[in-house]
Design a protein that fits this description.
Helix Hairpins; 15 strands; three-stranded mixed beta sheet; alpha+beta; about 375 residues
């Protein structure tokens, strides 16, 4: 649970479906809307919280980042909005909550069609994911056509205004209802919402205004990302047809494993071998960290599984301050391949401590010693 629990605000579980979230939002919007509560300030604040929670959870990417990193992570996903009513679709859903689907049609000029979102995968070294990095990424995208500069028209010519919509890219229809005149707005079917028609298409892009080509870009990877994280780069996706705005680029991160360290949240974990004598008598050992080797003290009588914590040697907190820790788990090793002198010493130690051990067989070291004394 986070300090601001959007699921709790909407009264749904963290596993709620999109439909359940939407139904709960509509109900709460009708209950808490300021117009229905006489301008009560406390109710108005609750209403704003409900809208902000819904705008976060209705978007799959923002919801995923909220589940991982909380409210700050959801805002870092690229929403960039502090006013909950500024989020895309906010008032449209509020009208829908009061009047039902189709009661109001919230029209907005269609204009050039937005390009599709694109996806790419970036493989990072372990250290790059921990400390952040600037990496070059090459991806095939629909880019603005250089010949026509995105207009789709043959060089030297220009698109003309669509006669059906008058260049607006939308068609308005007025109908009567019990609430009065209702205006519905839809994209012009004749020009596809672009507001323009091309009589002489560009031969390079065939009137599309864009061409597929290899594109290189710099990706700034923030410190603390993990394997499976996704970065959203607004406006870096596929270019829209005929000068339309570009979609977004989603970069999925894959992190190579480290030879020694493994990640557990913001902590790093390492396993350090310790000999039986070092564990019993104590020692100073060198361990691997991301900043180089460091020394740790093994206390006398250390038991298998003992964990030594090196504070601040872990992963930086994503969009926050501080770092996790490095946890060094000590694995005590039982000696093998003993020679005669070593086995004899261990048996003497066991006898001194009153510990029962298996007798030496005739084929064992002490058995051979007895044979020589006969």
């Amino acid at each position: 649970m986070t300090a601001t629990d959007y699921y709790q605000i909407l009264g749904v579980s963290p596993n709620a479906t999109d439909d359940e979230i939407k139904r709960s939002y509509r109900r709460l919007a009708r209950e808490l809307h300021p117009d229905a509560n006489g301008g009560d300030k406390e109710t108005e604040e609750r209403f704003k919280e409900v809208v902000l929670a819904y705008e976060t959870l209705r978007d799959p990417e923002r919801r995923r980042r909220y589940d991982m990193f909380g409210p700050d992570g959801a805002r870092g996903a690229g929403s960039g909005q502090s006013d909950p009513f500024a989020a895309a679709g906010g008032f449209g859903d509020i009208f829908e909550a009061f009047f039902g689907q189709g009661g109001f049609s919230q029209g907005q000029r269609s204009g050039p069609v937005r390009g599709a979102d694109a996806e790419a995968t970036l493989v990072l070294e372990f250290e790059e994911a921990v400390f952040g990095a600037a990496r070059d990424l090459s991806v095939k995208l629909a880019m603005i056509c250089d010949a026509c500069e995105g207009s789709g028209a043959r060089p030297g010519t220009h698109p003309s205004s669509c006669p059906t919509c008058g260049g607006s890219g939308e068609v308005r229809r007025i109908r009567q209802s019990i609430l009065g005149q209702m205006v519905s707005v839809s994209a012009c079917s004749d020009c596809g919402g672009a507001g323009q028609k091309i009589s002489s298409p560009c031969p390079e892009c065939r009137g599309e205004g864009r061409r597929i080509r290899e594109h290189s870009l710099r990706v700034d990877v923030p410190a603390g990302v993990d394997d499976g994280s996704t970065l959203r780069l607004p406006g870096r996706g596929q270019a829209g047809p005929r000068g339309g705005p570009a979609g977004d680029l989603y970069v999925h991160l894959r992190v190579k494993p480290h030879s020694v360290l493994r990640r557990s949240g913001y902590d790093l974990v390492a396993t350090q071998s310790v000999s039986m004598t070092q564990a019993a008598l104590g020692a100073t050992l060198s361990v691997v960290t991301l900043e180089g080797e460091e020394s740790i003290a093994v206390a006398p009588g250390t038991q298998p599984g003992t964990v030594t914590r090196l504070r601040g040697r872990g992963v930086p907190h994503l969009q926050g301050r501080g770092r996790g820790d490095l946890l060094v788990e000590l694995a005590v090793q039982t000696p093998t391949g003993l020679n005669e002198a070593q086995e004899l010493l261990l048996r003497q130690l066991a006898e001194e401590r009153g510990e029962q051990v298996a007798p030496a067989g005739e084929g064992g070291i002490l058995g051979r010693i007895r044979s020589r004394l006969r």
